[in-house]
């Protein structure tokens, strides 16, 4: 047997390679800035998604030759491209606005070094090579005052978080400031339980934290009721309190990065309620900035409408008429005028465009008060994806434009008479109800986690967009275990659906799954249908093997009537008289449901025992303009065959 290389020796080689990788990444970034300089001269848009698609496709190919997984290559390059696009944006924005691109700037932010605001400000300055002089403040008011009075050049204010929503106090201070919004930046907020002297969770009695992290970690905190909470004015103050405490029974909620500045370590990670916990900050300055036309711009407005029916709708119709997308709408009370609201709008438009200028003029006539808070580069870089169904877009004619004269409010909610437009559900790559033909693979649990992690990568590589987890109850899995499976699905960039067959598991499952799946035997379970209708998680409703299409749609109506409109029907075969043991795809039923209902319909062909039948039925589903297919993981033998089928379905 060959002797294994010596560990230290191999690690030295990895260290040297990593150094090389970093130097190559830095060279790539320099080249990307050269591209930005050319785009400045040619006035070309910064983002070129066509170029990104070509680049990703080539890299996946080249990666394969080196034995690198396509999913890994894509996610790596999505991060590299995001960084490259943001650097180019920062460069061009700085060129157009030299005053915010000073070598040295004083930045006002909440708390002290180590707070999330500090981390956001540091990252913003780093990207712009600004030497940051930090001015920690005790409140949002103090941040605003520091910039207004010229003690600071820029102020950082957290405006919204993916777990706890909008930060009302910040919206309120914006009503009364002369400052302008000149930028935005989003950071990952990874909440940890920070302790000193290596103390573990068991020895902690008191947790110091700012109210925002407390609300963002409410689920975790409710699972640890013995911890006493002590509120602080910032995460940095919480960390300082832990340092100053006499014993190690205290902890702070904060980031691992911030904690490191205080020599605190993370005893627990991932405390936030949401998988993706991010905070968006706005940057304010005394002078407004201009956004070059090559950059995606966002404009924030505040306005108060008159107190008459439809006043807000009228203003929004102005945006519609000028084809301006509104990405956020928030309302806050106006101090001194009870029950009157100030509306905050983010629109995806540059203030310099004639469309927005025209819209603003029209809005002035419709409002009591209107003010532009600022126009700034939008920092959300939507990752470019490579996906079979996205590359080949098929028109889906049967489901479009049924000429129904008008919508009938008394018609059943599933019907096209009630709603003419097809229901479309989009969750990451999984898109049903539009022109895509979706593909989902079903996997029965339990399955070893490591095996599952490899499996989901293969599923993604074969071209599926979602994974359906079956038999969670039979496998007696806990909510935590289901969460782990869903997390692996999410990490692979896929959408998760989890089968629910009992009301007992309902609440925990909807928290962790992207979608829930009610199998045919649940089609008559009134209680479960009621629960599925009362949440906002999309539901897949499978047809019972003995049910008529009328019964199936009646069950669908029970879900829709409770409020949840994100419903997908799943045809999974019916019992035929010729061979009652073998389920058969009900073609007539499928055609009827597709023409009667606006709901998307998937075909689950997992009953098909022969590979040939799987392929034929999947193709039949596609030809009948169903919205996608569900295949079992043991069908078609190997991932390559499944990929081959999906490839043909997308042609
Ligand atoms: C570097 C460029 O700008 C952007 C960044 C890209 C990258 O980092 O590879 C690719 C396309 C653009 O969205 C370019 O246009 O080539």
UniProtKB/TrEMBL annotation:
Catalysed conversion reaction: prephenate + H(+) = 3-phenylpyruvate + CO2 + H2O
GO MF annotation list: chorismate mutase activity
Pfam families referenced in this protein's UniProt entry, alphabetically: CM_2, DAHP_synth_1, PDT
The entry's keywords: Amino-acid biosynthesis, Aromatic amino acid biosynthesis, Isomerase, Lyase, Phenylalanine biosynthesis, Transferase
EC number: 5.4.99.5
Domain Chorismate mutase: 1-92
Pathway info: Amino-acid biosynthesis; L-phenylalanine biosynthesis; phenylpyruvate from prephenate: step 1/1
Chain residue ranges for the region called Disordered: 392-413
Polar residues: bias regions: 392-406
InterPro entries: ACT-like_dom_sf, ACT_dom, Aldolase_TIM, Chorismate_II_sf, CM_dom_sf, CM_II_prokaryot, CM_P_1, DAHP1/KDSA
Annotated ranges, domain ACT: 300-377
Domain Prephenate dehydratase: from-to ranges: 106-286
Domain of life: Bacteria
Name of the protein described by the UniProt record: Chorismate mutase
Lineage: Bacteria, Pseudomonadati, Pseudomonadota, Gammaproteobacteria, Alteromonadales
């Amino acid at each position: 047997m060959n002797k294994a290389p010596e560990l230290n020796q191999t690690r030295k080689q990895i260290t040297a390679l990593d150094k090389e990788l970093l130097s190559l990444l830095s060279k790539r970034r320099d080249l990307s800035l050269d591209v930005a300089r050319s785009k400045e001269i040619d006035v070309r848009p910064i983002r070129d998604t066509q170029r990104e698609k070509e680049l990703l496709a080539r890299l996946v190919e080249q990666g394969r030759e080196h034995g690198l997984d396509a999913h890994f290559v894509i996610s790596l390059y999505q991060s590299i491209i995001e960084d490259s696009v943001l650097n180019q944006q920062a460069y061009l924005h700085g060129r157009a606005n030299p005053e915010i691109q000073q070598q040295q700037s004083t930045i006002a932010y909440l708390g002290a070094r180590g707070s999330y605001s500090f981390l956001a400000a540091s990252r913003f300055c780093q990207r712009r090579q600004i030497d940051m002089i930090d001015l920690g403040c005790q409140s949002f008011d103090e941040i605003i005052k520091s910039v207004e009075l010229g003690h600071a050049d820029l102020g950082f204010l957290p405006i919204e978080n993916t777990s706890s929503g909008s930060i009302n106090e910040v919206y309120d201070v914006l009503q009364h400031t002369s400052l302008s919004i000149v930028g935005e930046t989003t950071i990952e907020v990874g909440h940890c339980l920070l302790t000193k002297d290596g103390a573990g969770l068991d020895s902690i009695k008191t947790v110091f934290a700012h109210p925002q992290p407390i609300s963002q970690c409410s689920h975790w905190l409710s699972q640890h009721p013995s911890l006493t909470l002590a509120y602080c004015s910032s995460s940095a103050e919480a960390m300082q309190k832990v340092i100053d405490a006499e014993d190690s029974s205290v902890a702070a909620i904060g980031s691992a990065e911030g904690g490191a500045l205080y020599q605190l370590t993370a005893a627990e990670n991932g405390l936030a309620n949401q998988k993706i916990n991010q905070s968006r900050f706005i940057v304010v300055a005394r002078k407004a900035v201009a956004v070059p036309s090559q950059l995606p711009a966002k404009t924030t407005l505040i306005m108060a409408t008159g107190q008459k029916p439809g006043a807000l709708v009228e203003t929004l119709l102005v945006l519609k008429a000028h084809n301006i997308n509104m990405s956020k709408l928030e309302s806050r009370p106006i101090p001194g005028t009870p029950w009157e609201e100030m509306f905050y709008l983010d629109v995806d438009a540059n203030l310099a465009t004639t469309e927005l200028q025209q819209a603003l003029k029209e809005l002035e006539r419709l409002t009591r008060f209107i003010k532009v808070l600022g126009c700034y580069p939008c920092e959300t870089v939507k990752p470019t994806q490579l996906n079979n169904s996205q590359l080949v877009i098929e028109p889906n004619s049967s489901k479009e434009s049924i000429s129904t004269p008008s919508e009938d409010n008394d018609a059943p909610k599933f019907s096209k008479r009630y709603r003419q437009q097809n229901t479309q559900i989009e969750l990451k790559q999984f898109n049903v109800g539009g022109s895509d033909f979706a593909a989902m693979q079903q996997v029965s649990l339990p399955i070893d986690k490591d095996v599952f992690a490899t499996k989901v990568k293969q599923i993604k590589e074969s071209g599926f967009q979602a994974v359906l987890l079956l038999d969670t109850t039979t496998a007696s899995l806990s909510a935590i275990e289901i969460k782990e499976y869903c997390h692996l699905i999410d990490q692979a960039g896929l959408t998760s659906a989890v089968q629910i067959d009992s009301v007992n598991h309902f609440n925990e499952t909807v928290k962790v799954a992207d979608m829930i799946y009610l199998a045919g035997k649940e089609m008559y379970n009134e209680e479960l249908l009621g629960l599925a209708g009362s949440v906002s998680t999309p539901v897949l409703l499978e047809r019972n093997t003995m049910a008529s299409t009328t019964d199936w749609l009646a069950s669908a109506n029970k879900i829709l009537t409770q409020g949840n409109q994100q419903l997908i029907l799943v045809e999974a075969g019916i019992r035929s008289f010729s061979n009652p043991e073998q389920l058969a795809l009900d073609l007539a039923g499928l055609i009827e449901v597709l023409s009667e209902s606006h709901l998307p319909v998937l075909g689950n062909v997992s009953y098909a025992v022969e590979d040939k039948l799987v392929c034929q039925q999947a193709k039949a589903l596609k030809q009948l303009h169903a919205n996608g297919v569900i295949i079992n993981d043991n069908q078609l033998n190997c991932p390559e065959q499944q990929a081959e089928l999906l490839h043909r379905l997308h042609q």
